[in-house]
Amino acid sequence: MNIVLLGYGKMGKVIEKIALDRGHQIVARIDITNRHEFEALSPSQIDAVIEFSHPSSAFENVKACLNKGVPVVCGTTGWLENKPAVEALAIEKDGAFFWSSNYSIGVNIFFQLNKMLARLMKPQKQYSVSTTEIHHTEKKDSPSGTAITIAEGLIENLEGKSKWINNENPADDEIAIWSAREGKVPGTHIVKYISDIDQIEISHVAHGREGFALGAVIAAEWIVGKKGVFGMSDLLAF
Ligand SMILES: NC(=O)C1=CN([C@@H]2O[C@H](COP(=O)(O)OP(=O)(O)OC[C@H]3O[C@@H](n4cnc5c(N)ncnc54)[C@H](OP(=O)(O)O)[C@@H]3O)[C@@H](O)[C@H]2O)C=CC1
Ligand SMILES: O=C(O)C1=N[C@H](C(=O)O)C[C@H](O)C1
């Protein structure tokens, strides 16, 4: 497959290595300094774009891919408010758009576990729930996209929760997301239920970026020839 990397930072570089190991070619590595090279490429040169850039650039980058008529797998977080517009554009252009807050298989299993646990905890009103995410100090957005997906899973499956709040004490209808930035931590997510007498905790700890990158390359392999708006639950058939 011919892949364009839109965003060539920490993730772009790990994705490149995994894509090459899986026998793909990297047609272009685009970051903020050589954006014009992407405009110059013709759709016939590209099987899929993998976009991991910056919260402020993902919206324009994904629109540029859909307008060019090439499938795009996007992992950038922190731009959720513009995602519905991109999804509408993908449908209008009969294109293909894939997004996940987290491409790791382990985290996607954790998302399901979180929802299952929430369903079990729903009648147990003596517990208060919260989620914590810990990432490296270079991370631009807070809370993490993954923590938002976890909070959405809790809101869907617990009673009386309608929104999340970041690094502030929650009201009764809010899920607290506690964010911390420490050293080079690749990504840790914890869901905790606390009562007066005990505590239940589930966690996912990434040991590196390889899991995110492998999932993104598998998504790019999967999206070729498809039309529509997709996420990891389509790929993993959850
Ligand atoms: N969904 C998932 O599984 C995962 C998602 N992420 C998300 O991916 C994103 C990128 O993470 P990471 O690689 O660690 O970040 P980095 O800051 O290491 O890399 C971002 C890259 O994007 C480039 N960039 C900035 N603006 C543009 C633009 N307009 N066009 C093209 N490239 C641009 C930056 O260039 P320059 O350096 O010149 O500014 C840099 O090379 C974040 O939103 C992060 O949260 C991360 C891991 C997993
Ligand atoms: O910025 C990161 O590094 C990560 N971002 C994603 C997120 O915001 O959830 C996924 C992963 O946790 C790493």
From TrEMBL:
Organism: Arcicella aquatica
Catalytic activity field: (S)-2,3,4,5-tetrahydrodipicolinate + NADP(+) + H2O = (2S,4S)-4-hydroxy-2,3,4,5-tetrahydrodipicolinate + NADPH + H(+); (S)-2,3,4,5-tetrahydrodipicolinate + NAD(+) + H2O = (2S,4S)-4-hydroxy-2,3,4,5-tetrahydrodipicolinate + NADH + H(+)
Keywords noted in UniProt: Amino-acid biosynthesis, Diaminopimelate biosynthesis, Lysine biosynthesis, NAD, NADP, Oxidoreductase
Sequence similarity: Belongs to the DapB family.
Domain Dihydrodipicolinate reductase N-terminal span(s) in chain numbering: 1-103
InterPro entries assigned: DapB_C, DapB_N, DHDPR_bac, NAD(P)-bd_dom_sf
Top-level EC class as recorded in UniProt: oxidoreductase
Associated pathway: Amino-acid biosynthesis; L-lysine biosynthesis via DAP pathway; (S)-tetrahydrodipicolinate from L-aspartate: step 4/4
UniProt entry tagged with the keyword NADP: yes
Any Pfam family matching the protein: DapB_N
GO molecular function, one term: 4-hydroxy-tetrahydrodipicolinate reductase
Name of the encoding gene: dapB
Protein's name in the database: 4-hydroxy-tetrahydrodipicolinate reductase
Lineage: Bacteria, Pseudomonadati, Bacteroidota, Cytophagia, Cytophagales
